[in-house]
Amino acid sequence: MFAAPIGHGAAASANNVTANAESDVEDEISCNEVDQDGAPTEADIMTVTAELVFNEMPSHLIYIYDDYETTTLIDRETLVDLFRPELIRVCKDLVSKDKLHDVVRQNLKYAALSHRWLSVGEPTFQEMSAERNHQSTRPGFIKLRNFCQKAREYGCRLAWSDTCCIDKRSSAELDEAIRAMFKWYRNAEICIVFLADSSSISDFPEEVWFQRGWTLQELLAPPRIKFYGRNWDELSRSRNDKEGHSMLEALSQVTGISRQNLLYFSPGLVDVREKMIWASKRRTTRIEDIAYSLIGILNISLSVAYGKGERAFRRLMEAIMQACREWQILAWAGPHSSFQASIPRSPLAYCAFDEASANILLPDRYIMDRPSKLGDPFFTMTKRGLELEVILVEMMLQQPAPRQPGGTRKKTQVIRLISDSASFYDVTAQCDMTFLPFSQWAIAIVNYKADESGKRGGIGKLNPTSDYLCFVLGSSIHSAYGGWQKVETQKIVTIRTKREVYQQVTTVWL
């Protein structure tokens, strides 16, 4: 059953809950002499506790009583006060402060639930906060009770579930939860995954959990994870499924994520294109969550604002381009953002490559190429668009196929661009010809070998044995600022040279 929440009614006084644990800690520090070199004082213990709770743990947690069935929802202030006597007792005999943080963390460990939400019937924050016992037989409450039982079996008296531990009425709390969720899953003692559609590992290809956007970070973030099937049966014999060979193999096959990343994933703006491909296989109910579910994976700061639709992903991509230095983030094709032609509409754009372009995008290859100073690492978004240094090669358009008598020209056609220079092969690309009233054409080569000077406006080098990523560009008297515009192609476009080429790079704004 779910008991009345501590700190939200009469039970608060029974548990001697203070209104603000942080101020208590400050008072203790001022009133107690701190021994800098010896054993920790009570003030030291509560300072470390408050720092851990307020900076590294969720804003609300479920406290699970010793009977494994009774639970109550508590906030951070209540958590500090509730565990104060125990932490002081456990830590007072430590001979050094060095281990204080680890001891406190071990006593405040929590389990996190990863699951697919039910269409109706999930327990809410308001229901969990109500001052009454809950013995509901709704599927969502049954799932929560099973999760809490598993959490206690892993030695956790605290548990977190995104359905009922976030006060979604508070925009500040919701914003913090979305920004910090990756960290909360990473800090969990165990991530318990409930797969409602699976009875065994063989069911993974059809399991909806692997198709949802938010569960990507819930798979990558936790160092320890345990999968349970539809009847809450264990799907392996391991206590940590990231240590099981057969489970890791199954996870890698169904997600396309390497075992290395499943085991040792590090968030950040490295291999961004690969992370976008992972995300492209997943869907979210709210279109904004395509972007927000990647915040923690990319370790990027982005304000949360629902109702913005596709603008959320555009803002994510703009933030990425301001900090990312990998030319591979530019290797996409297909529909662009409605607000910016140099930004893809969604992660699906990073899957638009064929056999000809796949070789230059292999992770094993471009990891090796990073020290080679390929392309312009200082591309950035400006008011004029994406500012980028490229090798620009002007070309002539071979006219598309004419209309057949009595017919109409196809909307999407393969075009051929021909260079006056004897150094370049022709380029072909499949484009939407409906809105391409360009009088000038060019290709912009992105991943040329940059010179060693590190200066802007240098000389780029192309080798005849390599394929290069390029953009198709068009220009006309109607083009913004009289400059080049990026032409939308259905697949990533590459070019190859006939001989070694050295050419001055050109700055374009796309």
Question: Any overview of this molecule?
Answer:
The protein is α+β, with helices and mostly antiparallel strands. It folds into 3 domains: 10-194, no CATH class; 272-352, no CATH class; 363-509, no CATH class. It is 31% helix and 20% strand. The chain has helices at 10-14, 21-31, 42-56, 76-91, 100-107, 125-129, 139-153, 171-187, 215-220, 245-255, 259-264, 272-280, 289-292, 295-298, 311-323, 355-358, 363-369, and strands at 60-64, 71-75, 110-114, 158-160, 190-194, 225-228, 336-337, 340-344, 380-382, 385-398, 412-419, 427-432, 440-445, 449-450, 459-462, 467-475, 485-486, 493-496, 501-504, 506-509. The strands form 4 sheets. Strands 9, 10, 11, 12, 13, 16, 17, 18 and 20 form a 9-stranded antiparallel sheet that branches. It has a 6-stranded mixed sheet with strand order 2-1-4-3-5-6, with helices on both faces. Strands 14-15-19 form a 3-stranded antiparallel sheet, with no helix packed on it. Mean pLDDT is 87; it is low at 8-35 and 364-371.
Please tally the helical runs, counting DSSP H or I stretches of 4 or more residues: 17
Largest sheet: 9 strands, antiparallel
Poorly predicted segments: 8-35, 364-371
Q: Which class of secondary structure composition applies to the elements?
A: alpha+beta
Q: Over all CA atoms, what is the radius of gyration?
A: 28 Å
Which of globular, elongated, flat, extended, rod-shaped describes the shape? Answer: elongated
Q: Please state the average pLDDT score.
A: 87
Task: Count structural domains.
Answer: 3
Q: Give the end-to-end Cα distance, rounded to a whole number of Å.
A: 59 Å
Range of strand content? 15-25%
User: How many β-strand runs?
Assistant: 20
Oligomer: single chain
Share of residues in helices:
25-40%
Domain Heterokaryon incompatibility: 110-200
Organism: Suillus subaureus
Pfam families: HET (PF06985)
InterPro entries: HET
